[in-house]
Design goal:
Elements: E1 5-10, H1 16-28, E2 32-37, H2 39-48, H3 57-67, E3 75-77, E4 96-102, H4 104-112, H5 118-128, E5 132-137, H6 144-155, E6 159-160, H7 174-189
Parallel strand pairs: 1-2, 1-4, 2-3, 4-5, 5-6
Helix pairs in contact: 1-7, 4-6
The protein binds flavin mononucleotide (FMN).
Organism: Halopseudomonas bauzanensis
Protein name: Flavin prenyltransferase UbiX
EC number: 2.5.1.129
């Protein structure tokens, strides 16, 4: 099994394609992915893509494993109240967690340590253990509350990586725009990426 493990939490902000592409890239990079998805994110996936994800963790795990041709056990899916899962504790959680996309609701819950579902708890664990936490918020415009929550989390060491693709690579398609953001996330994780040329190359 893959040595590197990452928690990928998908919440109900617009931009489901970022999450799905990131999952694909992590699988290709032979990373084990501990996958969490909120109910709102399930609705966003239906709205924004052609996919209808199975709602139950076990069926979703099988679906994603087949879709991304992952190795058995490479993608693990946990339900929102699976407090016995590895991500719920500092002793079992991976060294990095990405919330992509990150809704302003989940952003707020993480900033205040709410821990009311497994995504919020896993992020709380990442913060308390001083592990890598990458948040990919999307909203427009941002309210003062959103900005203050981002500042709070940034000061705690989280990386705020907004879903705001640049255009200097002259994107030709939506996929190019998605890859811009996903490349940034992979770079933060220290995973080699070929989606986007590095600046100056
Ligand atoms: C199609 C759709 C798009 C949404 N887009 C956003 C968004 O871009 N940013 C955001 O913060 N919330 C957005 N929302 C609202 C969140 O899904 C909602 O606040 C939800 O409670 C978030 O729950 P979660 O954090 O548990 O996923 C959207 C909802 C839907 C259905």
């Amino acid at each position: 099994m893959a040595e590197r493990r990452v928690t990928l939490a998908v919440t109900g902000a617009s931009g489901a394609q970022y999450a799905l592409r990131l999952l694909e890239c992590l699988v290709q990079a032979e990373v084990q992915v501990l996958f969490l998805i909120s109910q709102a994110a399930q609705l966003v996936v239906v709205t924004e893509t052609e996919l209808q994800l199975p709602p139950k963790p076990q069926a979703l795990e099988q679906f994603l494993t087949e879709r991304y041709q992952a190795k058995p056990g490479q993608i693990r899916v946990y339900g929102k109240q699976d407090w016995m899962s590895p991500v719920a504790s500092g002793s079992g959680a991976p060294s990095a967690m990405v919330v992509c996309p990150c809704s302003t609701g989940t952003l707020s819950a993480i900033a205040t340590g709410a821990s009311n579902n497994l995504i919020e708890r896993a992020a709380d664990v990442a913060l308390k253990e001083r592990r890598q936490l990458i948040l990919v918020p999307r909203e427009s415009p941002y309210s003062t509350i959103h900005l203050e929550n981002m500042l709070t989390l940034s000061r705690m060491g989280a990386v705020i990586l907004p879903a705001s693709p640049g255009f200097y690579h002259q994107p030709q398609s939506i996929d190019d725009l998605v890859d811009f953001v996903v490349a940034r996330i992979l770079s933060q994780l220290g995973i080699e990426q070929t989606l986007l040329k590095r600046w100056g190359e």
